[in-house]
Design a protein that fits this description.
Layout (H helix, E strand, L loop, with lengths): L1 H15 L8 E13 L5 E21 L25 E10 L14 E3 L1 E2 L4 E9 L2 E24 L3 E2 L4 E8 L7 E14 L4 E5 L5 E9 L2 E14 L5 E7 L12 E2 L5 H52 L22 H7 L4 H13 L3 E7 L2 E6 L9 H14 L4 E3 H8 L8 H18 L8 H8 L3 H12 L5 H19 L5 H18 L15 H10 L3 H15 L7 H38 L20 E8 L1
Parallel strand pairs: 1-10, 5-6, 8-15, 9-19
Antiparallel strand pairs: 1-2, 2-7, 2-19, 3-4, 3-7, 6-7, 8-9, 9-14, 10-13, 11-14, 12-13, 16-17, 17-18
Length: 640
């Protein structure tokens, strides 16, 4: 019974430290370290880490030994980094948190520490485990959309090296295993006591960091207290170390574990650090050249980009001077099908062209129609001879009477029903419609309405590659700023312009202006006197062309008014009036049917795709994929 009780308690203890936050998302805003050297050469370290977001806790790996460092030989190269700088151990670990708000300053170390205990739950506790050359502290403190100021305190043994002439501390405080970006990192290392003997400080890490000596003027004498460094926006896995040489008499306790080099070190340290400083300054100079060079390159790029756009507009985009100056045009251009007008206007074919093609076939008496009810019509193929039809019209007839309908008949309801059919994830209606678009587009391209500027567009598109070089330099130099954003946006606009600009040929310009005059005529149809209007038997054809301009409803209403004005009491034309009303209604219904059918077909296909199995990369089944640092020490950290 006792064993069972212990097992149950152990089980609940295990369950209680399960992670409560599943969606871990956090950042390290602030990280501040206060380290003090004691008279025995040990280093007492206190750290505060501000973590903001949602997380279960934080892991801090404390590494005190760097195995990659070679033995100390006393020559100059040994002062670049050697095992003599490794502390001998880590102990006196204390973990907790502080109650604090805002940016961290060293005053935060005066705050009361709420100590964490060994873990029995998932909040305010910690575990310590041994790792290679150090300790891993796992601090549990469930936090949701808030901040925790983690506090860690520990002692690194025998950190100071005693040379013949000076004492030296050389230690990595952040190792390359620290897996989080840090918004701001501050480190202060203080001497056992103030001294008037000159202290020197160096730091190694990102070139943006700042290092300084902590000094004060007292009664005309300079007193040295230690060293300080600060880094804004420290990237993850970036080591940071500090080196400090100071008065050796400050290490007052001589003990068996005190590390002594038995060499004069200062001159050699100065030599090593001067080489590093020279190298860093060269890097800064190079970076400065690259920064200003990138600014100049970006500015030049944008200027040339603007000049190219102006050049392209004038030579390849700006339309020719109008060669047809009449305000109105009543004449049809019979050289090509009515659907080509849409291509001439916008260089694309849409559902409007499909509807207009049906209406044109009705006008040409290739299709007859009969009204069944308010919203439905029956269409009948009047002839099987297609010799007089162009390829686009043949495809329209095929879709209507061979696919949507049967026995040379089809209704609007049949077309809508056909649009709902899906084979797998393919719509037969959309497939036919896309084929028709390709046919009409190809036929329209043969009319040479537009200049062929593909080679020009390809050649000038190569200039956009310069922006990739600029962005690479911006990212490499960490200077992704407003100018870089402008380069991106400008390049996107430039590419869109390259793809979209078109210039009509002499013929295309002439026909375009004729059709614009024709469109103006249809818009102003009601303003003309009877003698200025075309004969009534042509009005049906004008309605067909009005559809391609998107004016069918307006022109239809105008024609109704105009007809009643022209024949107010003439009953001899009632049959025509009946046909006219029927035609006007037919026009609207065909447009609505084609539009709704295409929308329905797209929706049905999307629905089938959504219902299909997810793709699998494991080979176990599923849906198809679409076609084809120098000193000793360091350590890491990460949330969980």
């Amino acid at each position: 019974m006792k064993k069972i009780l212990v097992l149950i308690i152990s089980l609940f203890s295990f369950i209680s430290i399960n992670y409560a936050v599943s969606n871990v998302n956090y950042k390290i805003d602030d990280y501040i370290v206060d380290a003090s050297i004691d008279i025995s050469g040990n280093l007492k370290v206190r750290e505060i880490i501000k973590s903001t977001g949602s997380y279960n806790g934080y892991i801090r790996d404390l590494i005190y030994k760097n195995d990659r460092l070679g033995d100390f030989t006393g020559d100059t190269s040994s002062f670049e980094g050697s095992s003599i700088y490794n502390p001998t151990g880590i102990d006196n670990i204390k973990v907790g948190s502080i109650n604090y708000n805002g940016e961290l300053s060293f005053d935060a170390f005066n705050s009361e520490v709420t100590e964490f205990s060994e873990c029995t739950n998932n909040r305010g506790c910690y575990t310590i485990s041994d790792i290679t050359n150090g300790k891993s502290i796992k601090m549990y403190n469930e936090t949701v959309n808030s901040s925790t100021y983690f506090y860690i305190e520990y002692t690194l043994g025998n950190t100071v090296v005693l040379h013949n002439d000076v004492a030296e501390l050389y230690l990595s405080f952040i190792g390359n295993g620290f897996d989080d970006d840090i918004g701001r990192y501050q480190l202060r290392v203080t001497l056992p006591q103030a001294t008037t003997t000159e202290t020197r400080v160096w730091a190694h890490g990102p070139l943006s960091g700042e290092v300084s000596r902590i000094v004060d003027e007292v009664d005309g004498a300079t007193k040295y207290y230690g060293g300080y460094l600060k880094i804004e926006d420290l990237s993850k896995n970036t080591p940071v170390d500090m080196r400090m040489v100071f008065d050796k008499s400050l290490i007052m306790v001589d003990h068996p574990f005190l590390k002594k080099s038995k060499v004069d070190a200062l001159d050699k340290i100065l030599e090593v650090e001067q080489v590093r400083a020279d190298d860093a300054n060269k890097q800064r100079k190079t970076a400065k050249i690259l920064v200003y060079g990138t600014y100049a390159l970006s500015g030049t790029y944008l200027l040339i980009l603007l000049l190219i756009i102006v050049y392209l507009y004038i030579k390849y985009d700006k339309e020719r001077k109008r060669s047809f100056d009449m305000e109105y045009n009543r004449e049809f251009i019979d050289d090509y099908d009515v659907t080509a007008i849409e291509y001439l206007y916008d260089k694309k074919i849409t559902e409007k062209g499909f509807s207009t093609s049906i209406l044109n076939l009705i006008y040409k008496k290739k299709i007859s129609f009969e009204k069944l009810d308010k919203k439905d019509y029956k269409f009948t193929r009047t002839t099987v001879d297609e010799s007089e039809l162009n390829e686009g019209e043949k495809k329209v007839m095929d879709i209507l009477f061979n696919k949507a309908g049967s026995n040379n008949m089809v209704t609007l309801k049949d077309i809508k029903k056909y649009a709902k059919e899906v084979n797998g994830t393919t719509s037969p209606f959309l497939k036919g419609f896309d084929t028709w678009k390709s046919i009409v587009t190809n036929e329209s391209e043969k009319l040479n309405f537009y200049e062929n500027n593909r080679s020009v567009k390809l050649k000038f598109s190569l200039y956009a590659l310069v922006s990739i070089l600029i962005l690479y330099l911006d990212i490499k130099l960490g200077m992704f700023n407003l100018l870089a954003f402008i380069v991106i946006i400008s390049t996107i606009v430039y590419i869109i312009y390259l793809v979209s600009f078109n210039k009509r040929t002499i013929r295309g310009n002439l026909d375009y202006n004729k059709w614009k005059a024709f469109e103006r005529f249809l818009k102003d149809f009601g303003r003309f006197d009877e003698k200025e209007l075309p004969e009534i038997k042509l009005w049906e054809r004008y309605l067909v062309y009005a559809n391609i301009f998107g004016l069918a409803d307006k022109v239809g209403k105008t024609m109704k008014i105009k007809f009643n004005e022209m024949y107010p009491n003439d009953y001899t034309n009632r049959d025509f009036v009946f046909d006219y009303y029927l035609w006007s209604s037919l026009n609207s219904n065909i447009n609505r049917t084609v539009h709704s059918s295409i929308s329905t077909a797209h929706s049905e296909v999307a629905s089938k795709i959504a219902e299909s199995s997810s793709s699998s990369g494991s080979g176990f089944g599923g849906g198809f994929s679409s076609g084809g640092g120098f000193g000793g020490g360091g350590g890491g950290g990460r949330g969980f």
